[in-house]
Specification:
Blueprint (H helix, E strand, L loop, with lengths): L1 H15 L2 E10 L4 E3 L5 E5 L5 E9 L4 E6 L1 E11 L5 E18 L5 E15 L9 E2 L4 E14 L2 E12 L4 E2 L6 E3 L2 E10 L1
Antiparallel strand pairs: 1-4, 1-14, 2-13, 3-6, 4-5, 5-7, 6-7, 7-8, 8-10, 9-12, 10-11, 11-14
Length: about 200
């Protein structure tokens, strides 16, 4: 009898473990770069104001889940030299991979949730740089936490959320003039749609 009860509990937990896949996208709240005017030249960010990518979640019992995103953002800057006025445009692709534990609490179709975990960022397709700024740390790792609301309509989950990431190191720096650096505090407003 005891083993039958244990088998029923394990089967119930296994049926609750559904995999959800979908897409997550949104807009950054903070700029990717910190820029200031320098004596030799100036930087201006030209990072796109959107991020998007696939998401997958393993839904566990009691409102818990484990989620992995692959979020893409195009980033870059313009560097203008003071002498000569030469402008150089630099661009790159940023891929962020947040691996988060999520807890959606309260019963019903509308559930607030909190999440936290690690994020990994990889810079790719970096155009040629002749300006003083350099890619100094790639990949970079940070800690992410967020909060939002999960709306469940039939088998579709819609999840608007705010996320904050604190990166452990800067990806880009201008070591000569200290006028360009990566913002280590990143805020995003994202909406996920999963099935």
């Amino acid at each position: 009898m005891r083993s039958l009860f244990l088998l029923c509990v394990i089967a119930g937990c296994a049926s609750a473990q559904a995999v959800s896949i979908g897409v997550r996208g949104g807009v950054p709240i903070t700029d990717f770069f910190n820029t200031v005017q320098g004596r030799q030249g100036s930087y201006a960010t030209n990072t796109d104001r959107w991020t998007v990518g696939p998401t997958v979640a393993l839904n566990l019992p009691l409102g818990f889940s484990v989620q992995l995103d692959a979020l893409y953002r195009r980033l870059g800057w313009d560097y203008t030299q003071v002498t000569g006025g030469t402008v150089q445009t630099v661009s790159a692709d940023s891929w962020q991979f947040p691996l988060l534990a999520k807890w959606a609490f309260l019963p019903g179709p509308v559930k607030p949730f909190v999440e936290g975990g690690a994020s990994f960022q990889k810079i790719s397709r970096l155009s040629q740089i002749t300006a003083p700024a350099r890619l100094v740390n790639d990949p970079t790792v940070g800690f992410t936490f967020g909060a939002g609301i999960q709306l469940k309509i039939h088998k579709v989950r819609i999840e608007p959320e705010f996320r904050y990431t604190r990166w452990g190191s800067e990806a880009f720096q201008d070591p000569l003039n200290s006028v360009l650096s990566t913002n280590r505090n990143q805020g995003d407003f994202l909406v996920g749609i999963t099935f």
